[in-house]
Amino acid sequence: MADTSIDGLGQSWQSSATAPAGGDAFSALTSEQFVKIMFTELGNQDPLKPNDSAALVEQMANLRSIQSDLDMSQKLEALVTQNQLASAGGLIGKIVSGLDEDNQRVSGRVTSVLKTPDGAVLSLDGGERVPFSRVDELFDTPADAPAEESVP
């Protein structure tokens, strides 16, 4: 009976196979480790019942492709977030109007920008917060801004 363990890969594969928290053991493999796994699999198969090597290689390639797509998606999402923060940061000192998180119309001067899981949020000088995606007016000067409502 053929030994199906992958002991021949050594300690370097074992340490990378235990993925760090939030990581993926497959993505932690180097190309050299991947080739070692393939040769070990081929070397340990029963000659009278060979595995379909082409199918194995295809499955591994598909997994690599999926992992690559996920990595690219995460990097693209981070890039979009950074672009949104840079654009929102350009509004600091400007007067904006839009809907806050409670769907109330607010306006005021942007004092800071917050990064949240839902995207950039503008903090206004009156204490209101407006999600960047819900800003619908931008004023260059206070004379262009909507009149403040006076409270009796």
Task: Describe this entry's structure for a reader.
The protein is of the alpha+beta class and 152 residues long. The protein is built from 4 helices and 5 strands. The chain has 2 domains: 80 residues, no CATH class; 53 residues, SH3 type barrels, CATH 2.30.30. A 5-stranded antiparallel β-sheet has the order 4-3-2-1-5.
Q: What attributes does this structure have?
A:
SH3 type barrels, 5 strands, 2 domains, single chain, 152 residues, rod-shaped, alpha+beta, five-stranded antiparallel sheet
Distance between the terminal alpha carbons, to the nearest Å? Answer: 90 Å
Tell me, briefly, the overall form: rod-shaped
Strand tally: 5
Strand order of the largest sheet: 4-3-2-1-5
**Classification by helices and strands:** alpha+beta
Major β-sheet profile: 5 strands, antiparallel
Backbone CA Rg:
28 Å
Oligomeric state of the chains in view: single chain
| Strand-residue proportion | 15-25%
- What's the SSE pattern? HHHHEEEEE
Mean residue pLDDT:
76
